[in-house]
């Protein structure tokens, strides 16, 4: 194999982390530490593509780092850092801005959703966002990226950028004596029962930081009481739980809650339905609330403690930043030669 198995993933420090971020991404970071070299990044440069109050950004950056650690990411085994510390992210993103086409960026559904009718008036950074994301991943020549379903299109674009770079600069790459497959074609890791956790109020809407209703999401900083109340109040249809996964079709709220139970208990939806199929919400919701509290409340306690301990968190980020920069500079050194920059 030309590339050793290396995982990279990132989370934006742009508001409260929620259950979707945890089940779709952070929880899945932990076991990958056993099989891969793992790099987990707090993407503060992505966050400022929309306005962030500086003190809020600092607090949110520490909060994401605290969530990684509280969830079981080991900062000795993994590299944990914030993006802005490693200037090569911005440098490679610029090269990729000159590889990617504006048409590719305009097609991104996340850009269209975020820009809405206001697309002339959003930051240029928001349009170029996927180019910086490709730089995050390819700077480390990551072979696999664990994310939720909403990042799929961005990862396809990362593959397109890698392929176009390898192709446009093919002659130069060979001339510099480097592997013709200079950048890997990265695999998305989007799997399991929780790739798209939905709002607790509306099973057709994604659970998101920007939903105005606090009841729509479980925040990773919620205490046991809040977690339990939100689950018990979650919107559901009146029917009992189906006996098999097929029966979840057309029942988005039921599908979502069964998916959350499955992800929290490391089971499949089918296994959850073997246990609860045919039962009513009066049985299932309390069981889900107990499970969620048992799993999430200790983590939120640990997060709260770590967020206060800024010396420890900042030390972890600084150490991670140094280790990340060593890898990033190697790649960037080659990229500069390939592109024709003199140093
Ligand atoms: P962000 O910060 O919006 O979300 C972080 C991670 O959480 C996942 N996620 C969800 N998963 C399941 N259900 C949901 N409702 C849900 N909401 C969010 C996201 O898919 C993501 O995995 N562009 C990225 C950050 C990024 C990145 C990267 C990721 C920057 N560079 C390089 C991977 C590799 C983002 O905005 O994620």
UniProtKB/TrEMBL annotation:
Motif 'HIGH' region mapped to chain: 13-21
Sequence positions that bind ATP: 12-14, 20-21, 148-150, 197, 206-210
One GO term of the biological process aspect: tryptophanyl-tRNA aminoacylation
Motif 'KMSKS' region: positions: 206-210
Keywords per UniProt: Aminoacyl-tRNA synthetase, ATP-binding, Cytoplasm, Ligase, Nucleotide-binding, Protein biosynthesis
Domain of life: Bacteria
Keyword match ATP-binding: yes
Gene3D superfamilies: HUPs, Tyrosyl-Transfer RNA Synthetase
Positions of L-tryptophan binding: 136
Entry GO CC: cytosol
Location relative to the cell: Cytoplasm
GO molecular function annotations of the record: ATP binding; tryptophan-tRNA ligase activity
E.C. number: 6.1.1.2
Similarity comment: Belongs to the class-I aminoacyl-tRNA synthetase family.
Functional description taken from the UniProt entry: Catalyzes the attachment of tryptophan to tRNA(Trp).
Subunit: Homodimer.
Name used for this protein in its record: Tryptophan--tRNA ligase
